[in-house]
Amino acid sequence: MLKRFLSILLAICLAVGCLAGCGGNSDQPETTGSASGNQQASGEVVDYAAQVQLKENSGTAQQKVTVKMYVDGDTTHFYVPSSVMPGGVLKGRYLAVNTPESTGKIEEYGKKASKFTQEKLSAATSIIIESETAQWEADSTGDRYLVWVWYKTAESEPYRNLNIELLQNGLAIASSSANNQYGDVCMKAINQAKQQKLNVHSGQKDPDFYYGEAVELTLKELRSNIEKYDGMKVAFNGVVTVNDNNSVYVEDYDAETDMYYGMSVYYGYNLNGKGLEILNVGNEVRIVGSVQYYQAGGTYQVSDLNYRLMKPNDPGNIQKISEGNKPAFVKTSADKFLDGKVKIVNDEGESISADYAAMAMSTSIQMKGLKVVDSYTTTNEESSSKGAFTLTCKVGDRTIDVRTTVLVDDNGKLVKADVYEGRIIDVKGIVDYFNGTYQIKVFSADNIQIQ
Fold it and tell me: 42 falls in which pLDDT band (50, 70, 90)?
C-alpha cells in the first residue's frame, strides 16, 4: 500500500514539474508590458521605434534641430539656437545606446551603425532632440549632451525614435538602457535584436570590417589611390611634422615625382606613454592604422593606432625609426598651389593628372608674399578654437586662405588676426582642406612672418 502511494505521489510531482517547465524557458529574455510582450511567443517582429511617441508638452527639454556634423552611430552635432547652447551647436550623445566605435578606434559594425544614423537623419524632414529632464544634461565628458533623437521623413508621419531604432536593429549595445523614461521599450528592443541575432548580436563577421593584415605601401601609393584603401588597415613610413588635437601629420618624400606626400593620422585617446612618445614631432615613424573618411573635414585620415608595450615588436604596433628630422616646408607658389598638376598612376595602372594640392594634402609647405585682405576670428565661447582665425590673402589676382589654430606669442599672449591685416606675410604650414577649398593651416605664431 505504501509503495502504491509513493508511486502516485511521484507521478503527481513529475506532472507538476513538467507543467512548470512548459510555462517558460529560462533561456529566453524576460519581457514585460502588454505592448509587445507577446513578440517572442508569436514570432512577430515588433517595430519598437514606432511604439513610443514624442510628447511635445511633457516638460522635458526639446528642440527642433538640423545636423551640423555626423561623428559616429551614437554621436551627432546639431545646430541649435544660441539661446539653447552658446555658439549655436549642441553635441548630442544618444541616450540608452552604445554603438561600436568608428573614429579613433575601429570596431566591428561601427561603420554600419554610423552609416545607419547618417542615412536616417539625412533623409529626415524634421528632427527633434529631447533631454531626459527639463534641462540639457551633459555626459561624463562635460562636452556632449545626452539626448533622445526623433525624426520623420514626411510631415504626415509621426516621429520615430532613432535611439530605440539602433537598439532594435542590433547596431548598439545597452548603455543604462533600462534607467530612463523609455527603458521598458529599450529592453524589449534589445531582447528582440538578440533573438533575431542581428548585427552585434549575430556572432558573425562584419562584412564592412577589414580583418586582414596591414597592407604595406608608401604614402605616395596611399594618397594616389586613397579610396581603394577605405576601411583597410595600412602600414607606411613618414616623418611627423605636427602634433595637434590628438592628431599628427606625417609626410614622406618620393624621388620619382620630386614631391612629398602626407596623411593626417588620428590617434585619439588610444595611446599613452611610450606610444605617444613615438609620435613626437621630428620622429620618422612606421604608422599602422585604418583608413577612414573623416566626415567633418571631408577628407581621409588614418586612425585606430595601437602600441602594445609588452610586445614592442608586434607588427601591428606603431614604431619609431629615427629622430631629429624636420618638416620639408616645400617652397610653393600660389599658382602651383591652385592650378598645379601631378602625374600619378591610378588603381588601373593608368597615368593620370591630379591636382597638386590634393596630392600634397597634409604635407608641409611655405608660401611667401601673401597680402592679407580680410580676416575672420572664431568667437564662440564654447569652442576650443575660440581665438583661432582665417586670413584671406592675395598673391596678384590669386586668393589663398591661411587658417590658424589658437596662436600665442613667446609670452603666452593671444595673437590676434588684426596684427596681420593689410600686411604682406610669409607662411609655413600644412596643406589642409576646409569647406570645399584647399588652404594652408598654421600651428605656430613663428610660422607667420610679416615682411
Answer: low
